[in-house]
Amino acid sequence: MTDFSLADDLSLALALAGDADLISLDRFTALDLVVTTKPDRTPVTDADQAVERSIRAGIRAARPNDSILGEEYGTEGDSRRQWIIDPIDGTANFLRGLPIWGTLIALAIDGVPVVSVVSSPALGKRWHAARGHGAFAQVRGEEPKPIHVSAVEKLEDAFISYNSIQGWDGAGYLDQLVELSRGVWRARAVGDMWAYMLLAEGSLDLVGEFDLQPYDMAALIPIIEEAGGRFTSVTGEPGPWHGNALATNGVLHESALEALARR
Ligand code: IPD
Ligand code: CA
Ligand code: CA
Question: How many whole angstroms from 71 Cα to the centroid of ligand 2?
C-alpha cells in the first residue's frame, strides 16, 4: 500500500476529471464524432476512449503501483488499491446530444470504493466525496457545497427514479416496479449518473436499476453514502459488484428491499 491520504487521492481524481471534461466537452455534439459498436453491441465514441486513455495515463504517472479497471480498456495491475473508471456514463445520451452524462472516477481499496468524482460538464456540475470527509456538489465557477440526502420517511411520499422500464423488465422485476410505482408519490426515469446524484442531493429518494457493471456504480457509492444515503444491490448486498443498484436516502432502504423482494 502507499502513503497517500484519501485527500491526496481525491485531489488526483479531481485533477483527472478536469482533464476529462476538456476532452469530452470538446467532442459533445461534434459533427465528426466517431461512433462504433462494441462486441457487446453497445455504442462507444472516440470521446469515451480518449477520456479513458487520459485518466489511465494520469493514474499511471501519479500512482504507478495502483491497479485500474476501466470500461473501455479493461484491467491492469493487481494492487489492493484499484481505480475504477467509466469514462462517459451515458454514452447513448452523449451521442444523441442529451446533456445527461458524466465521467465516473473511483478509488476502491480492497474492493470498497472510498474516494470518487462524478463530473458532468454539459450539466456544469461535479460531485465528489472521500470516506469520512462528506459529499459535495460543485456548480461550475462556484465553490463546492456539502450535500445531504432527503429526510422522506415513507415510500408513499417518495420521488423515485427507475431509469428504464426495459431494465426492470429484462431482469424479471416489472411487476415489482409497477407495484412500487403505485405506492410512491412520483416515479420518473431520470437515468444514468444523474439520478444517483439527485438522490445524494436530496431531490430524489430512491433509485433502482439493473444490468450494471462495477464501473457504472463504483463512483456513485462514496458520494451517496457520504451524503447520508445507502447503496446496495436490489437484494441488499453492499458494493458495486452485484450487477444492479438500489440507492435510497437510507430511511427508505429496508422498505424498498422488502417491496422488491415481493414476488
Ligand atoms: C450505461 C448507464 C446506464 C445504464 C446502462 C449502462 P454507459 O452506461 O450506466 O445508466 O442503464 O446499463 O450501460 O454504457 O453509458 O457507460
Ligand atoms: Ca456506465
Ligand atoms: Ca461508459
Answer: 8
What percentage of residues in the chain have a pLDDT greater than 90? 97
Any domain includes 1: no
Among residues 146, 164, 198, the one where a domain terminates is: 146
Distance of CA 86 from the midpoint of ligand 2 (Å): 6
94 CA: nearest ligand 1 atom: 15
Q: Nearest to residue 248, comparing CAs of 171, 170, 180?
A: 180
The span from the CA of 258 to the CA of 176, in Å, is 10
| Model confidence, pTM | 0.97
Q: What one-letter code names the amino acid at 13?
A: A
**Residue span of the structural domain in which 58 resides:** 6-146
Instruction: Specify whether 172 is located in the same domain as 82.
Output: no
pLDDT at 235 over 70: yes
CATH number at residue 175: 3.40.190.80
Ligand having the closest approach to the CA of 193: 1
